[in-house]
Amino acid sequence: MESTKQAVVLERAATANVVRHFEEIYRRRLFAVLGYSSMFLFAVEELGYDRASAQRRVNAMELSMAVPEVLTFIDEKSICLQTAADIQTFLNKERGARRAYSAEAKASLVRDCLNLPTREVQRRLAAL
Known about the structure:
Layout: H1 2-27, H2 30-33, H3 39-46, H4 51-66, H5 69-75, H6 81-96, H7 103-112, H8 118-127
């Protein structure tokens, strides 16, 4: 059982590390250098992620670029990849509806979702 728990800890650290790598690739536009029009396509076609997994990581990357503490929260198990992706999906929809959140409001929204189950986060986001 302990080895399974340790594997989960390593998996979370690896997930946060992958998101960090995604940030660097995005900032340097390396996906474009390789001929991809988006990080999503790079993740699917170059890295072999399925579409849903790629989208979660790209969304988490976008959120972590706006709220850098997100990666620490993932490392600490305060927030999971799905929650980070759900928050960014919500923020994208809000921006599309011309209700963009400030940097402080984004950080506050993330903090409000810490240590909550994914379904509770989804419920709260739907109520906003």
